[in-house]
Amino acid sequence: MPAVPHDEWLRRAKAFQLSGAHHIDGAEEAGGGAVFPVVSPRDGRVVADVADGGAAEVDAAVAAARRAFDTGPWPRLAPAERGRALLRLADLLEERREELALTVSLEMGKPISDAYGIELRAAITTFRWYGQLADKLTDESPHTAPDALALVTREPAGVVGAVVPWNFPLTLAGWKVAPALAAGCTVVLKPSENSPLSALLLARLATESGIPPGVLNVVTGDGPTAGRALGLHPDVDVLAFTGSTAVGRHFLRYAADSNLKRVWLELGGKSPNIVLPDAPDLDRAAATAAWGIFFNQGEMCTAPSRLLVHSSIAERVTEAVVRRARELRVGDPLDPETEMGALVGRTHLDRVRDHIRHGVDEGARLRTGGDRVLAETGGTYLAPTVFDRVDPGSRLAREEIFGPVLSVLAFDDLDEAVRLANATEYGLAAGLWTSDLSTAHRVSRALKAGTVWVNCYEEGDLTVPFGGMKQSGNGRDKSAHALEKYTELKTTWIQL
């Protein structure tokens, strides 16, 4: 984190200006002229007016991406050359890191220390990693009879539509854009209407880095209009989406109603975090549980929102989490000392508070939090919230809240813990705390989740895949496996 004080971030925020035009075919495009305001959750003020795109703008962006794919140089470059372009983009992101961090913090309420130190680090690392990977992939030549030669090659899939949410606007865009570009595809990116500014800046830096026009386009607008148009577009070959399960279903329908494009979904979660009595360090387990649910204001698909604790240690662990929740510094995202910023907007704040009210009505015990705070700022802040005595069948235990709200459930034996953990339609992530190696292996295999963290949470790097099971989606972001989403397998059989 750079040594930039709070008052300097405030000065930069006051002077902040960024064009809200779409980025199509390497240039700014105003579109039809309609705009919508981007409201900062830190104080309720309008940060910028952004172009409100629809079918016409999506058509233009897809046409640019199609030209760039069908006749442009990008898919025909040597993989090493594509990799060097991605590395140049990563370098530009590093150079403009403070500006990008400020943009993310203003548009979605993330603490500036997290925006700079975590969000931008992840985005830069992603583009750099895929840039380095681009020329290290190999095709196959299976063994055949002596009179034939078989080749299995991976070819870029074509035009990729990428729709990403607001909670990690640059990281999640990078997880889709970087491997798609490395594979030789072209991209139309539709960011959330809550966080479009960082995506627009990313696209402009991509053009500045030398990535050809039409290879990365950004259309801003809402989901029911711009998102739908992208999902239905017959010239989009692959659609990659991160967001809610409900919207994921829409994209599957759009594919069925158009050209049967492949749709890759990374959806919601209600992740369990299981703490056993033999955890190597109960204090660390509790501190990690608190960090996991309150990090990024709880606006995380992988957030460990269900803390499953053995009844013999439930009160000790819960009390430690409650203490940490009460100590957490909630405040202005532009203050480097802030630990938890603002929820993304008023609509989302109201939705999270509705879940809290239902939790109380359902009989769960509210241990701390539950109230809006700092309302006088005009921002959308919520106190870190912890419930215990949560009914496993209640909304608190079953529905994704996407906010800083933790549900604590006690169990008496390991079989019960696994049943509770799997008693959800989601299967994105899970945590387990134990000192027993056999228990770690057995429970990890029994948990229906795409990622299981043992004696940690939210750890990993670009070498490992990320994605879910059940209604948490399909396909994988990160790692070399992500390239599978953006390539087609071709078999060539040569009779000698």
Topology (elements, then pairings):
Layout: H1 6-14, E1 22-24, E2 27-29, E3 35-39, E4 46-51, H2 55-70, H3 79-95, H4 97-108, H5 112-133, E5 148-156, E6 159-163, H6 169-183, E7 186-190, H7 197-208, E8 216-218, H8 223-232, E9 238-242, H9 245-257, E10 262-266, E11 272-275, H10 282-294, E12 306-310, H11 314-327, H12 346-361, E13 365-368, E14 372-373, E15 381-382, E16 385-388, H13 395-398, E17 405-411, H14 414-422, E18 426-427, E19 429-433, H15 437-446, E20 451-454, E21 469-470, E22 487-495
Parallel strand pairs: 6-7, 6-9, 7-8, 9-10, 11-12, 11-19, 12-17, 16-17, 19-20
Antiparallel strand pairs: 1-2, 3-4, 5-22, 13-16, 14-15, 18-21
Helix pairs in contact: 2-8, 3-5, 3-6, 3-7, 4-5, 5-6, 10-11
Care to describe what's here?
Keywords: Oxidoreductase. GO terms for molecular function: oxidoreductase activity, acting on the aldehyde or oxo group of donors, NAD or NADP as acceptor. Residues 35-491 form the Aldehyde dehydrogenase domain. The protein is α/β, with parallel strands linked by helices and 496 residues long. It folds into 2 domains: 6-267 and 472-493, Aldehyde Dehydrogenase, Chain A, domain 1 (3-Layer(aba) Sandwich), CATH 3.40.605.10; 272-454, Aldehyde Dehydrogenase, Chain A, domain 2 (3-Layer(aba) Sandwich). Helix content is 39%, strand content 20%. The chain has 15 helices and 22 strands. It has helices at 6-14, 55-70, 79-95, 97-108, 112-133, 169-183, 197-208, 223-232, 245-257, 282-294, 314-327, 346-361, 395-398, 414-422, 437-446; strands at 22-24, 27-29, 35-39, 46-51, 148-156, 159-163, 186-190, 216-218, 238-242, 262-266, 272-275, 306-310, 365-368, 372-373, 381-382, 385-388, 405-411, 426-427, 429-433, 451-454, 469-470, 487-495. The strands form 7 sheets. Strands 13-16-17-12-11-19-20 form a 7-stranded mixed β-sheet, sandwiched between helices. Helix 3 (79-95) runs antiparallel to helix 6 (169-183). It is globular, with a radius of gyration of 23 Å. The termini are far apart. The mean pLDDT is 98.
